[in-house]
Structures are given as structure tokens and as C-alpha cells.
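Notebook entry, structure prediction.
Reason for the run: the old model in the group folder had no record of what sequence produced it. Starting over properly, with the input documented here first.
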Amino acid sequence: MSVKDLVAERFMELCRERGIRLNELAVLSGVTPSTVYSMADRRRRDVSVVTVKKLCDGLDITLGEFFSTPEFDALEQEIQ
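New structure, fully documented this time:
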């Protein structure tokens, strides 16, 4: 799984856990719904670090909490 896929999946997982939709995540985070849906779209998954931070703020979690998963720890190096 790519880092982009993993970021999108992590946000979707957190939304499922909290019982909120992606649209609600956008409102909580102060970003446009199109930004969140673009992040979730497999063909368009370009999301900035600033956007990740805003989405984490909307979910009331830190960047450390967001990235602290076995899946992120297991990602292979991007540079070979």
C-alpha cells in the first residue's frame, strides 16, 4: 500500500470509528468537502501536510497519534 493510500484509509477509518461522514470531517476541519473527497479518491490522492494537520485538528488528534500505527511503521522506503 502506498503512503497516499494509507493516509486516506486512516482518515476513513477514523471517521468510521467516530460515526462521521467525510463531509462532516471537512466541516470540523475547516477545509472544503472537495478537498476531503479528493483525498479519498484513489485517482487523485494528493494531500498536503497542512491538510493532514487540519484534518487531524478536526478529529482532535495529534499528527503523532495519526501516524502512530503499525501500517505506517511498516511502510517501505520511498527512495531505493
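Summary: Helices lie at 3-18, 22-29, 33-40, 49-58, 63-67, 70-73.
The old model has been moved to the deprecated folder.
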